[in-house]
Amino acid sequence: MSGPATVLLASADDAMVEGFRAMLALEPGVRPLATPRGAEVLALVREQQPELVIVDHELIGARAFDLCRSLRAQPGMAEAMIVLVVSADNAEFKRLGLAVGVDEYLTRPVQPADLLAKVRWMQRIKRVNDELRSDRLELERLHVELRLGFDHLLELLVSLVDMRLPGAAARGEQAVELARGLAERFEIPASMCRDLDIAARLHEMGRVLAGSDEPDAETHPPGVHDRRFVLATRALLQRVDGLREAGDLVGAIFENWDGSGFPSHLQHGQIPLRSRILRVIIDFTTALAAPGDLSVDEIMDGLEERRGTCYDPMVIVQLQEMLASGPQRELRDSRVRLAVPDLRAGMVLAEDLCTDSGLKLLARGTRLSASVLETIWRRHRLHPLLEGATVVRPSA
Fold first, then answer.
1. In whole angstroms, what is the distance from residue 94 CA to residue 84 CA?
2. Over pLDDT 90: what percentage of the chain?
3. Which sign does the torsion angle of CA 145, 151, 156, 157 carry?
4. Where are the alpha helices (DSSP H) in the chain?
5. Torsion 269-271-275-276 (CA) sign
6. In the beta sheet, which residues pair with residue 105?
7. Are 257 and 312 within 8 A, CB to CB?
8. Which bin fits 63, alpha (ψ -120 to 50), beta or left (φ > 0)?
9. pLDDT digits (tens, 9 = 90+) for 223-263
């Protein structure tokens, strides 16, 4: 509930001040203040934040306009009401006052009814402003709740994909980091980068619809999509408000620069720039995650061979420059997290293999054999190992 409205009168006219105090003492919801010194006005305004300031022109003469200008510039005074008391025959003062933020005028001698009318008008404005402020705060609160709810939904989806495709969350974060770097180089507005981030994090979502969870089921390298998975990702994301544009970006990643792509055979600038960036980043991070010892330079050479056919040439150029100019760091992790169906004999655990409840099954450094894999599978059938297993990256 808002407090009383503060009204400040700056005047050396004792009769005006006395009448002001007497009249407003009977007006509910109003707290009157008065000062006979112009030098005190700004300090009082900063301290009290009045809703209405009445400045008597005769208090400081021509400097009254400078005072009104300074009042309007004070923090919290943008919505306050400023009234200037002038002589009845001084129309020029009214014209000058408009330029310095004066809202209304009272003419000498000030009539109590006129003063009361200004005060009550100010009270109505205050009530409206209080309601607007309350509504704005409520909208901001609801917006924060909505944003938090959306972020929680996004984290839930990322976790869902990561459980079905262990390592997808880490791959998505790496794709986000690289995509942001390219977006900055192409001067993509920050407001458009959020959908790019979401698309990078969830681009594997369609793969959760892949086949059965068996050792001999067909598997796909991390990050690789066939056309079914891309279309499935787009269809899933387009079902949710706030994810539709990210779905459109994912749906266009298989559009080729030369027009030979899928599904709409777009070419060149017809393909959204963010989708062109996403295509290159996904293929780059997929190559990083694949078994083998290809260097970053060798991976980039492979992408370079398809510049101008699959890829936007400028995206390739910018990625090359970004990797060359950035801090030297290891882009490829020496470990990789795999789903249980993707484990193979000969792989070495890079971390202890534990159940979701924390029970340790196998120690780090264990080399997987056929019998060990069978043991893992028996446990997995009874109590699914949703986090998969972290193994030393296979060299081939």
1. 8
2. 27
3. positive
4. 14-25, 41-48, 57-60, 64-73, 91-98, 112-164, 168-185, 193-202, 227-237, 244-251, 273-289, 296-304, 313-325, 370-382
5. negative
6. 84
7. yes
8. alpha
9. 445 677 888 899 999 888 889 999 999 999 999 999 998 88
Spatial neighbors of 239 by CB under 8 A, at least 6 apart, are: none
- Going along the chain from its start, the domains and CATH numbers come out as 5-135 (3.40.50.2300), 165-332 (1.10.3210.10), 334-396 (3.90.105)
* Burial label, 230 (beta-carbon count in 10 A; 0-12, 13-18, 19+): buried
3-class DSSP state for residue 210?
Answer: coil
For the record, the structure tokens of 148 come out as: 């938090």
Question: Given a cut of 70, is residue 279 above it in pLDDT?
Answer: yes
What SS3 state is found at 39?
Answer: helix
- Tallying the residues shown for the chain, one arrives at 396
- 8 A C-beta contact, residue 5 and residue 52: yes
Q: How far is CA 118 from the centre of its chain?
A: 44
Residue type, 330: E
pLDDT for the residue 339: 80
In the sheet where 5-10 sits, what is the strand order?
A: 30-35, 5-10, 52-56, 81-86, 104-107
Q: Which residue has the tokens 């009254």?
A: 64
Give the whole-angstrom CA distance, residue 229 versus residue 205.
8
Distance between CA atoms of residues 31 and 50, nearest Å: 9
Q: What's the pLDDT score for residue 173?
A: 92
Give the list of residues 6+ apart from residue 113 with CB closer than 8 angstroms, or none. Answer: none
